[in-house]
Structures are given as structure tokens and as C-alpha cells.
Amino acid sequence: MLKVDNLTFEVNEEGRKRCLVNHVSFQVADGEMLVITGPNGGGKSTLAKVLAGIENADEGQIFLDEENISGYDIDHRANAGIGYAFQQPPRFKGMTVARMLSLAAGKELTEAESCRLLSAVGLCSADYLNRQMDGTLSGGEMKRLEIATVLAKPHKVSIFDEPEAGIDLWSFSMLIKRFEEIHKEKKESLILISHQERIIRMADKIMVIEDGEVKQYGSRDEVLPTLFTRESCGRCANGLEGGVC
Ligand SMILES: Nc1ncnc2c1ncn2[C@@H]1O[C@H](COP(=O)(O)OP(=O)(O)OP(=O)(O)O)[C@@H](O)[C@H]1O
């Protein structure tokens, strides 16, 4: 169980404090899937970075199975069981895909194991295992490799920031299947940040974040109908595409 209590993250903008994550509290039970959605710039990625230990919270606490991980850095949080896939994955010059997957798995993977991971994200291992994780890979390829690194190891909670971004339709379907399998197995909890209706509909719980605050949080049946009846974003008069802006 992940328990997030009163999490706050501020930045200093030209001498003025701006709260990007504003007293956010929620829980993700074992095996549960939480989808976080909301308008662009609402604070979803920032919240994910604070959960993963990339940014340090100014206030609040994070508990993973009763363990207070609030003071842990990114490595300690990963060891405690938090997996995190960036919205925009970093590239690593000089590192092959095979090496990266083994590092992510925490053990030397066989070719067959690496192949299974790459297949789950729609990549053919023969073409990729010896490629460098550098600028020669396309944005969509990097995104799928980043997701494969999180899938390489079991976590208590895996956070995927917009896993659909830049991914083609065929790979997206495979990815959805993998998320469905993980969800069905109930061995790990998933937090998916997404604007994609198909992903939002998979959730056990949905949280809407806007202006750094939790605007809605509840079961899929409670929140989903309200998403698709909102006509405009709460922050501005912009129309919503497919129900979510
Ligand atoms: N380090 C930072 N310093 C200042 N402002 C930041 C910083 N990081 C993010 N922001 C701003 O905070 C707000 C929230 O950004 P964030 O990336 O968390 O939004 P998001 O909900 O993930 O958006 P999107 O749906 O577009 O991915 C944005 O206005 C962004 O420009």
C-alpha cells in the first residue's frame, strides 16, 4: 500500500513561491491501478517526480507498506519498490539497450529474457539489443525502452508518466495488454499518468489534478462519468478533447 499524505512541492519563481503540488493526499492499495489525469501543466509529472524521489517534497509524507520513504533519495526509493518511467526518458550515450535492461533488472539478463521485455513494448530484440541508448533512437523507441526498463523488475508500485506519448497504435495495444496483465496479477500497484481514454477506463481509481490540487479522486465509476460531461477545463475556457484537456 502506498500512502501519500499532504504532499507539497514548491518552486521559487522570480522571488515568489509557486506551489506545483498542493497538499496532495491519496492511497494506492496493493494491486490497485490509479490513473492520474487533468489539464496540461496541472502538476501530474511533478507529483510523479516527487513520488519517485527526483524532486524533494517541501511538506508531507510518503509511506510504502508502513515504511516512511519520504527522506529516501531516488535510489533508495527504487530499492524500496518504487518504479518510475519518465514522461521524457533520458538518453545514455555509450550504454547498450541490453546493458540498460540488465541494470534495470538488477541482474544479468539472458537474451531470451531481454527479448521478452522488448516484445512487451513492441520492439524486436534482434534489432535493438546492441543499439546505444543515445540520440540515434527515435522518441517513440526511447519511450518504449524506458517502459521496458521499469517492466524489467518487479516493484511494489510502478509509475508510468504518459506511457502512450509518441507510441504507435500497435505498440500501444501491446502495452495496454501488459498493463492489463500486471493489473490482473495484482502483484504490483500501478500509477498511470494519462490523457488517454482507454487507459483512464482501465483504472480502479481516478484522480484529477489541476493547479497542483486534487480536484477529483474516487473510484472509476464515480469519477469517469464526470470527466466526459465536463465541457471545459476549470482553469480556462478551453474546450475538452475527448473529455479531458
Ligand atoms: N522545476 C520547475 N520550476 C518551475 N516550474 C515548473 C518546474 N517543473 C514544472 N514546472 C511548471 O509546473 C507546472 C506543472 O508541470 P507538470 O509537468 O507537473 O504538469 P503536467 O500536469 O504533468 O502537464 P502535462 O499534462 O502537460 O504533462 C507547469 O506549469 C510547469 O511549467
Automatic annotation (TrEMBL):
Domain of life: Bacteria
Keywords assigned: ATP-binding, Nucleotide-binding, Transport
Presence of the UniProt keyword ATP-binding in the record: yes
SUPFAM superfamilies: P-loop containing nucleoside triphosphate hydrolases
UniProt topology in membrane: Peripheral membrane protein
Primary localization: membrane
Residue ranges constituting the ABC transporter domain according to the UniProt record: 2-236
Residue ranges of the TM segments: none
GO molecular function, one term: ATP binding
SMART domains xref list: AAA
Annotated localization: Cell membrane
Protein name: ATP-binding cassette domain-containing protein
